[in-house]
Amino acid sequence: MGLLDGKVALITGAARGQGRSHAQLLAEEGADIIALDICKQLDTVHYAMSTPEDLEETVRLVEKTGRRIVAKQVDIRDYDALKTAVTEGVSELGRLDIVLANAGIMTQSLEPHTLNREEWRDGIDVMLTGTWNTLQITSPILIDGGRGGAIVITSSVSGLRPMYTDLSGGFDSYCAAKFGVVGLARAYAAGLAEHSIRVNTVHPTGCDTPMVNNDFFPAYMEGNMKTAMAFQNTMPVQMVDPIDISRAILYLVGESGRYVTGIQLPVDAGITYAS
User: Fold this and answer.
1) Any residues with CB less than 8 A from the CB of 240 and at least 6 apart, and which?
2) pLDDT at residue number 47
């Protein structure tokens, strides 16, 4: 028996990286999955974003566990399209118990100020407004289900401690959004508590995913040494693995975290509080 038998989990940004890892682990623990991802490139993102083929691989890995999965290509900035995708997924799988607002991007540029306003807009729209859209659409479904539930928002160590801005819209939007979702989570934790719906945030340090494991990100860090130094982990590891974040999320959404709500859980190799 799995820890999540009979439950349905919705995951944004599920095509690869942390989102795929979450989908796979929760499926291994018995959950059916609604996997959502944009699967296209944004002009302000300077590394390769997810593709339809990435989402197909997530489907394959979940189905390999024996669980069901509904996968949709959708832009979480588009409220109406997201609502349609969520509604169709819940209708097909019959219920909703867990929501992982995981989708995120980095819009930093190697040449600051060239796309400042566009970088700011896209970063905030995806990571803050997109998260709000996700909460707005899924919270009533969880309430109507009458079984309680769990929501986890993916923030960052950049949502717990100040970082050095490079004065770009991309970096500023990342920090603002990652702090902003903490405020959202705490407000929703208070508002949904009477329905036994728990809301928490996880805060990874650098995580070995395609968002940072690419040609662009090391070059960006090399050109912004203050930021690079601020991301030095206390423990002797350069980056954590996606499964480390997935296991923290499993704790929060399972019976183990049944009375845990409104917290900020770092998975950060000591970078936030031990440095």
Assistant:
1) 204, 205, 206, 207, 208, 267, 268, 269
2) 94
Question: What's the pLDDT band for 228 if we cut at 50, 70, 90?
Answer: low
State the pLDDT at residue 235.
Answer: 94
Q: When comparing pLDDT for 165 and 21, which is higher? A: 21
Q: What tens digit of pLDDT does each residue of 37-95 get?
A: 999 999 999 999 999 999 999 999 999 999 999 999 999 999 999 999 999 999 999 99
In terms of phi and psi (left: phi > 0; alpha: psi -120 to 50; beta: otherwise), the region of 113 is left
Active site residue 259: no
How far apart are alpha carbons 132 and 179 in whole angstroms?
A: 13
- Match 């997530």 to its residue by tokens: 58
Question: Which structural domains are found in the chain, ordered by start?
Answer: 8-263 (3.40.50.720)
Name the residue type at position 11: I
pTM of the model: 0.96
Residue 229 in tokens: 């130094």
Given the residues 47, 79, 174, 251, the one annotated as active site: 174
3-state SS of the chain is CCCCCCCEEEEECCCCHHHHHHHHHHHHCCCEEEEEECCCCCCCCCCCCCCHHHHHHHHHHHHHCCCCEEEEECCCCCHHHHHHHHHHHHHHHCCCCEEEECCCCCCCCCCCCCCHHHHHHHHHHHHHHHHHHHHHHHHHHHHHHCCCEEEEEECCHHHCCCCCCCCCHHHHHHHHHHHHHHHHHHHHHHHHHHHCEEEEEEEECCECCCCCCCCHHHHHHHCCHHHHHHCCCCCCCCCECHHHHHHHHHHHHCHHHCCCCCCEEEECCCCCCCC
